Amino acid sequence: xxxxxxxxxxxxxxxxxxxxxxxxxxxxxxxxxxxxxxxxxxxxxxxxxxxxxxxxxxxxxxxxxxxxxxxxxxxxxxxxxxxxxxxxxxxxxxxxxxxxxxxxxxxxxxxxxxxxxxxxxxxxxxxxxxxxxxxxxxxxxxxxxxxxxxxxxxxxxxxxxxxxxxxxxxxxxxxxxxxxxxxxxxxxxxxxxxxxxxxxxxxxxxxxxxxxxxxxxxxxxxxxxxxxxxxxxxxxxxxxxxxxxxxxxxxxxxxxxxxxxxxxxxxxxxxxxxxxxxxxxxxxxxxxxxxxxxxxxxxxxxxxxxxxxxxxxxxxxxxxxxxxxxxxxxxxxxxxxxxxxxxxxxxxxxxxxxxxxxxxxxxxxxxxxxxxxxxxxxxxxxxxxxxxxxxxxxxxxxxxxxxxxxxxxxxxxxxxxxxxxxxxxxxxxxxxxxxxxxxxxxxxxxxxxxxxxxxxxxxxxxxxxxxxxxxxxxxxxxxxxxxxxxxxxxxxxxxxxxxxxxxxxxxxxxxxxxxxxxxxxxxxxxxxxxxxxxxxxxxxxxxxxxxxxxxxxxx
Length: 555
Fold this sequence. Notes:
The chain is mainly alpha-helical. Helix content is 73%, strand content 1%. A two-stranded antiparallel sheet has the order 1-2.
């Protein structure tokens, strides 16, 4: 009898924070249900969208298309150079500055840089680098130019300006990931041990830290590579025009009313997926080869390089600030002709005449998406089968166009395209993985003994989460809401396909205006795209401070 009572107590007091262990199958199925509703329609959608492209005639038409070779070349150059530049910037700053004062300074400024969406950053960079942009105007003052130079600084045929924008923007994302990884105690101890043995900072990184960190950065690097291949909004603004990049070409084909063109777009989407797999496989082979070649280091100590007097991170920060500044000036400019460095007059006329419909649409859409995603993420992390987490990350690590085409095909079959329900569902696929990634670290670090104590006092698993666990995880939950809202604001392709042109957000409006609209109106919409994520992060910080004003552990 005593043994039976002991087993019953152990079963009842088993920690509920380790999904998949000692849980009822019903709770696992209920936790997986929201995820299944988000991901489930993609499987038939992929078949409906890509099945017509399996015809040999479609592939022959694809290879015979005159735009195909140059579009493929621009895509490969921009994606490869952008990924390499982003990785190089993040790796150089981490190697030179961690640990130290400058790394802490960069870490403090990182949320502001991350809140700038890709499309808004591309618009600001266009205003800076174009032949009539701010940098050309500054040179005109010194060189006496009266007209913009005949330079191709943006929308070049090789996609170099797009690669520059991708490299700068994705380096912020990689630095954010490195900040999270380097905050772990184990990494800090390894750096201290390596430095105490006489290795310089660069040697410690190359021999000790990078071999440990690079395998953990595999998923973020794959996400950067996939985004570079399939980006459309930045490519429309900064990429080549005729022909465009492969992603823009696929987008044009998929939205064509001709079924043959749609099939060709599906075939090109498969090519894009093949390029991603090829690049990921090559990177994995290079990593394994480098590990074998550096398996036995010589142990030779080298003197540390002299620290730079001027921080190398300052240009990265200045570009971000300059992008926001030039957008703000253009939104207030009354008249501004080349080669004037400053507008003739500033006014709020453009703001007063601005169309605020995209702003309110983006606001309610992002709020609805994150309020639906947060319970799904919490239930999945608490009771869901964690061994299937990789399924949630699929939208982040493969090119977006095949998935967007699958979403659109599923919405057409269900007859919910162009509706608010279909639009919200299309955003859930991209927001949920980011919210899970934001929450999974704090969730795993939560002390399970607190839940065991709550269960011992008679609380059910759900009541223990509502009363103990989730209130203590309020700060990570608010951060997940802010991150998810920012991701929803930045969505371009899902909004375009699922909305059917009936819902206009600040992102779709900014990209549409970049094709030749009024620069002042474009600057307003791009700034609104930046303001919305900033409002989300600011509101999350205020609520976190208010909730923790009397509870030190929640600050």
